[in-house]
Each structure stands twice: as C-alpha cells, then as structure tokens.
From TrEMBL:
Record InterPro entries: ATPase_NBD, ROK
Organism for this UniProt entry: Anaerobacillus arseniciselenatis
Protein name per Swiss-Prot or TrEMBL: Glucokinase
Family under the similarity heading: Belongs to the ROK (NagC/XylR) family.
Top-rank taxon: Bacteria
Length: 138
C-alpha cells in the first residue's frame, strides 16, 4: 500500500474499513482497485454507503471545527468551499454546515453564508488574476 495513503483521510478510510464487518461498496471498490480518491469516497457516500458516510461525517466535523474557529476569529460574510473537495457538493456541504453551526458563535453563524465555489478548481487562478488586474493594471 502506498504510504501517502496512510495520512489524513486515507488513514481514516482504512480505519473505518477495518473496524466493521458491515458490507460496504467503499471496501469492495478498494479491494478491487487497491486505491481510492476523495472523489470515490464522496461518490460512494452519495449512495448512502455506511463506511463512506462515516468518513465524510468525520471530515465534515474536522473541517467544521476549523472553519468555525476561523470564522469566530475573522467574522467573514461568506465561506466558499473550493478546490477538488468542492465537487463533493451536498454530500459534504450539508454535514459541514451542521458541524459548523455547532461550533460557530451565534452572531457569526447568523452573519455568514457557506457555499460551494462555482468555479471549482479554477477559483484560485481566476481570483489571483482578478486581484492582479485590480491592483496592477487598473
């Protein structure tokens, strides 16, 4: 097994798969292909697979706590989830919002909107280009 797999979410998936005998499409996929990506986990969780759903819920908890801590400090108007994880859509966003609401201060929670980036993986590049244009060209 690739050692990179044993960190972060990969370790969580492996622990979930070995801790139960429950049938799982996630386990079946891994046994067949000997690899998984975050996309596979999210896709399989979207099919209501118990192990994949547990992994997504744990990711949502950890990310929700981190985002709540940042929001409690910075009080943003909007939190935009971007990058590859943004392709997960509601399978991640719904539990993430639930966890965020558990840890964000009420005043912060009332004033912030959490959405998925509509530009996907290109959001950072497009934002950087816009920032450069605004600050250096205009």
């Amino acid at each position: 097994m690739d050692e990179k797999w044993l960190v972060g979410v990969g370790r969580l998936v492996l622990e979930e798969m070995t801790s139960t005998n429950t049938f799982s499409y996630l386990r079946e996929y891994y046994n067949k292909h000997q690899s998984l990506t975050a996309k596979h986990v999210f896709d399989i969780a979207n099919e209501k697979d118990e192990i994949a759903t547990n992994v997504v819920n744990t990711v949502a908890l950890n990310l929700g706590v981190a985002l709540a801590n940042l929001a409690n400090s910075l009080n943003p108007e909007k939190i935009i989830i971007g990058g590859g994880v943004s392709k997960a859509g509601d399978v991640l966003l719904i539990p993430l919002k639930e966890q965020f609401s558990r840890f964000a201060f009420p005043a912060v929670l009332d004033g912030v909107e959490m959405t998925i980036a509509t530009l996907g993986n290109d959001a950072g590049v497009i934002g950087g280009a816009w920032l450069a244009k605004e600050n250096f060209i205009n």
